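As a warm-up, study this chain.
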Amino acid sequence: MKRTLIIIAIIAAAIPAMAQPDAEYQLLRRTYKVGADGTIDITLRKELKLIRNRAFTAYADKGETFIVYNPSFESLKINESYTVRADGSKVTTPPNAFVEQLPSEAQNCGRYNALREMALVHTALEYGCTIVLDYTIHRRSNKLYDEFSTVMDCPVKHFEVVIDDPQHMLYATYDADFSHNGNTYSLTNIPQSTIDSYMPANTNGKHFVVSSVKPEDYPTLFTIDSETIPDAASTISNLTKDDPVAYAATLRDYVVDYIRLNNLQPNQLNFQHANAATVWNSGCGTAIEKNILLAAMLRQAGYQAQVLLRNSKWLVQCTIDGIDYLMSATDTRKPPLFIPDLARPSDIIVNRQLAWAPTNLGNSYYLVELPADSGHVDLRSQLLTSVRTAPLNIPNACESYTYTLALPDSLNLQLLTKELNFKSSKEGKWDIGVTIRRTANTVQVTRTMTLTAGTLEGKDYKAFRQALQKWDTTRQLHFKAQ
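Now compare it with the structure written out below.
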């Protein structure tokens, strides 16, 4: 019995403790107050406890706070700023810790040089201290569209949204189970965010929108002009191509590559934006301004084009030969996407005859690798963990690949790879199949994948991952000469 107890103690000691977060928000509060004159005050309060030294060595946003505002219609007031040390003593942030500067998002574009960023360096940081910051941005405007996530890069114990709106000007929409008490919305014990390239867009968190217009009316805050751009005429004509789709894509690439993107939100400019000619001449613009410019250039080139808002992203819809295409003037991927506005991308059907050109592994063993399937699916099973708490985003796809490998008569080959007839499906989500069949002198491999865009969780995720593993591990054929 004594030996058993010792063994149990050793095993228990070997189990690692639950990792501590680097920091934890004790409180995050956002307060919106409408004044009698229609102006709006936005007050933000954070109480952030630093637990490990990485909180103020690896993350600049923990030891510093950056507040962007536009003095042309906003003013900033710091209500409180101090640090509560681990022993309970309070250290007020000194005046020289507040530095006003030009926001990086406004650089290299003279039209935005009036914006300001308050850089606040928090002081007296140590293990177990708590940073407290409370500030108000007073907006001399009744326009508001503020969208944010409740999930941060460290846990949040208490999150509050307070809407003090005696004028009944503000609308609140949210996709989380907030408790609601009067004008206060609350969430508690929010886990930290998950960093994952396969996360669905806008789902790494519970989102909240406070707006002075109904969310569906938000795009009407913007006026899209239909003017031409005289100074761009030569550029537009010089980019002409015979293929109208390729020509439109070239215009899009030009705006992506040569018009600088300034990541300023419409709120920060009081929903004012420059016209297409101004954006062209200044060589810079916000997301909506770049798309306004692209739409104007397309219209000047003879296309039907308009700017629209889709899933919180500004895009241009261009009609070519009766087909509506969506393109983004801010997409910096190479090549930038040019997407028909269809529910599913074009089907991929491949049927190829493969010649015998194996890799000789020695001792009469041979390896044949199938061509890489370069379709619409960019998911790799080896990057997906066996247990996943976040939802998995899958795209639309309909792909079929058939490869027929001719075997040489000069070799008596044994197929070491097992013949296979694999199929996995979930109605309305995925259908994945792999078959490997041998005849006398050929081996035929058929790979099919049909996906419906959406998110997977729980048992669906586990089954899909297993199917994807089969898809990823059946690209090689092994042979042995008898």
